[in-house]
Amino acid sequence: MSDNQKVEIPKIWLLKKPLEVGKIVKNPIPYFKNALNENDGLIKIIMTSRYAVMTDRPEIIRHFLQKNHKNYIKTKIVRNILKKQIGNGLLTSDGEYWLKQRRAIQPGFHRKRLEAISHIMINEITTYMEEVMDKYAASGEVFDMSKEMTHLAYKIVSKSLFSGSIKDDELDLIETTISAAQNQVITEVRQPYLKLWMILKGEIKRNKQLRKEADKTIYKAIEERKKSGERHDDLLDMLLDTEYEDGSRMSEQQLRDEALILYVAGHETSANALTWAWYLIASHPEIENKLLNSAYQTLGNEKPSFEKLRELGYSLQVIEEVMRMYPPAWITDREALEDDEIEGVELKKGKDVIAFIYGVHHNEKYWDKPEEFNPERFTPENKKKQVPFSYLPFGGGPRLCIGNNFALMEMQFVLVEMVRRYKFEIVKDQKIELNPLITLRPRHGLKVKVSKR
Ligand code: HEM
């Protein structure tokens, strides 16, 4: 393509309006959405000496995530900051090493494995309802659904990974460690000038210490499992069984890194989707009834199962629509290895390109009345009509979320179990605001009351 056919990407200076910076840092979503709407889905965000291209155009996103993915790696934020905090695992590695690990770990998420894990999940959800939710129902007290769903998702991922090998107090330690690491990453990315303050306050040293303790716990669980020779059919068994093409196996350090990454990637995303799900379900009684009836129709009073998932299609539609409106991973980004071009849009070597997933999911070009919660968009017939890459809660291309089917199964089980047992009521007069951190959370949590049906 000749120079005069190149697309000029409109520039947006993030720091040009100092008075607005605070607001943008707090919640950049409306700002990005407006800027993209006004500029045909493509902008260049200038931050002092750096810039990144941002887009909500499915064909461009598809290009760098899928069609020419070989030209793209994770950005410096992942390579230099996140990797230091959580290790070199599937989410944070690139190139040959990533491919080797992905090939090795993928079978752990195949049908047969998910079927085994489904029993662990259902047990965990039942225990959780009996030990926690039933008590809230009995007392009638107000609680934060966001905290509860985070705790439940932690338990589910922990039991699916390690069965009973991580005790509750050890799980609390891992939870605290991950949360501290995430806060550090967010501060280093959004307010790098506060790093010195974090060092002075001793926060960075404290986080390192926490990480050491959490590592010890994970190493101990791995060692105990190896020694015991017992089988649990969980993800740890799968990681231990993994054999590379040359017959070698993962080192302790690799096992630890991959396990921690599964914890990190596998809890907050599902927890947020579930929190938003309860928010939307409780505020749409007609959809709540439809979900309730469809769950009873398929299951009666029985527990759900892996075999029944196919018949629980409406719960899947609800979950998919929840993640359209509130995609837990609201952006994803890459860095170009070499100069590249798509339809005249230049993506330069060494520069970042950002897929604004939230923006694609709320774009009128691809969704009729995008602000309406309507699970009918995800009937099997309607799904066929969707533009490729206009719906991407799990990303796309070869780095598509490895836990997507795990997460969908987990969320379907939670919905059909809890909707049949409880009715949730959203406390009135609370502010529901977006808090787009690493994942998209409700800023002030979600206060609810629960009663038994
Ligand atoms: C609602 C739940 C979830 C959502 C919305 C979600 C979303 C995503 C997205 C968007 C990516 C791609 C990131 C990128 O393009 O850079 C990703 C990657 C990943 N996710 Fe998930 N995820 C969810 C649940 C899970 C669960 C339950 C697990 C594990 C048990 C998991 C493990 C991973 C891993 C390991 C990767 C990295 C894959 C790779 O690069 O090869 N995720 N996830």
Condensed summary:
This protein is α+β, with helices and mostly antiparallel strands.
Would you give an account of this structure?
It is a single chain. Helix 4 runs antiparallel to helix 8 and helix 12 crosses helix 17. A hairpin with a 2-residue loop joins strand 7 (340-342) and strand 8 (345-347). The protein is globular. The mean pLDDT is 91. With 453 residues, it is α+β, with helices and mostly antiparallel strands. The strands form 4 sheets. It has a 6-stranded mixed sheet with strand order 1-2-3-9-6-4. A 3-stranded antiparallel sheet has the order 5-13-10. The chain has a two-stranded antiparallel sheet with strand order 7-8. Helix content is 55%, strand content 11%. The longest helix is centred in the middle third of the chain and has 31 residues, at 252-282. It has a single domain, classed as Cytochrome p450. It has 17 helices and 13 strands. The chain binds protoporphyrin IX containing FE. The site of protoporphyrin IX containing FE has 23 residues, from helix 12 and helix 17.
What is the general shape?
A: globular
Helix- and strand-based class? alpha+beta
Question: How can the largest sheet be summarized?
Answer: 6 strands, mixed
N-C termini distance:
64 Å
Along the chain, the helix and strand elements come as: EHHEEHEHHHEHHHHHHHHEEEEHHHEEEE
Mean pLDDT: 91
Tally the structural domains. 1
Strand order of the largest sheet: 1-2-3-9-6-4
CATH topology: Cytochrome p450
Q: How many strands appear in the DSSP assignment?
A: 13
CATH architecture: Orthogonal Bundle
Low-confidence stretches: none
**Number of H/I helices:** 17
Can you say what the CATH homologous superfamily is?
A: Cytochrome P450
Residue share in β-strands? 5-15%
Provide the helix percentage: 40-55%
Distinct ligand kinds: protoporphyrin IX containing FE
What is the CATH C level class, in words? Mainly Alpha
